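protein under study:
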Amino acid sequence: MKPHLDFERFDPPPIHENMLRAALQKRQERRQTVLLAIAGILCQFVLLFCGFLAAEAFPMAALLCICSVIISTAGSGVIAIVFTQNRRSML
């Protein structure tokens, strides 16, 4: 059986401490971004829930809460699309 990987032909890329630190920093930034996104979604759910609870007593406040959730969700979607696009195609 012939092995399909030949480790003697190519040298593996060197791994430096700076590369490992950069990877760790990127992982921490991703984790913080996910936590921030989850916190934003939870805040929107709370605002929507408050709007539904206040619908009978304060209809204008309920309308304001629900409209702000809709506008915030639309804005978040636009921001997500902009940041996931390739920056070169946007210029």
Summary: The mean pLDDT is 85. The helical segments are 17-53, 59-84, 87-90. The radius of gyration is 24 Å.
